[in-house]
Amino acid sequence: MAYFSTRAGFPASLLLKDLGTGKIRKLLSHDTRVESVHTGNFTNTSRALAISPDGKRLAFAGAKNHLESIYLYELERGGLKRLPLEGFQTVAMPSFSPDGRSLAFSGMKGGSTDIYLVDIESREVRRLTDDPQDDQSPNFAPDGKSVAYSSELELPGQDELYQRRLYRVSLEGGRVERISDLPGSARDPVHSPDGSRLLFCLERRGFYEVYEL
User: Buried (b) or exposed (e) across 24-45, using 16+ Cβ within 10 A?
Assistant: First the structure.
């Protein structure tokens, strides 16, 4: 299990724990190659790490000299690789495609945060959503044909002005559909291995619960 810890201070350390032996290995801590790692947006921490389907790579977002990038850590042989993403004000929440060849991520350009796709080898970037809402926490469907994500809504007259709903965007054609409409803020969708279910966190009036769709 990979996770971030601020036990040793900031920036957070990147740790890997063997669940069988309990042994903890420090992968990254106060590294000069990454000045800061991103653990969430604003006051809400969100899923910030992604492990490739073959278990060999760990992806996370960070910054060096105010330049946003996605970083890939080689879990078997060690080593850190930077995947530069030019023109982005922020980059966060990478998610591997089922074939491990690309990453979906949340990125801000021109003050607008949308979902993007980057090919790991060619570094070609493709925009998946294009709207004024704040789009976050993408997660690939197991068949690789769509990406689920969380998007912010402004709802005047509601007891909570800003809320979040879950959406799904098709990689072929770019069709976007809303897939949840529960009051509150739905975040961090995760598909089940067979793609039949979607688990997510819902925050409502300061309380957090796990839901299954």
Answer: eeebbeebeebeebbbbbeeee
For the cut 60, the answer to whether the pLDDT of residue 6 exceeds it is yes
pTM to 2 decimals? 0.92
Token digits of residue 122: 């060619």
How sure is the predictor about 174, in pLDDT bands with cuts at 50, 70 and 90? very high
Q: Are strands 50-51 and 90-96 parallel, antiparallel or unpaired?
A: unpaired
Q: Are 61 and 92 in contact (CB under 8 A)?
A: yes
Q: Is 74 left (phi over 0), alpha (psi -120 to 50) or beta?
A: beta
CA distances from 4 to 30, 90, 199 (A): 12, 19, 22
Rounded to whole angstroms, the Cα distance separating 111 from 130 reads 12
Percentage helix, strand, coil for the chain under 3-state DSSP, each rounded to 5? 0, 55, 45
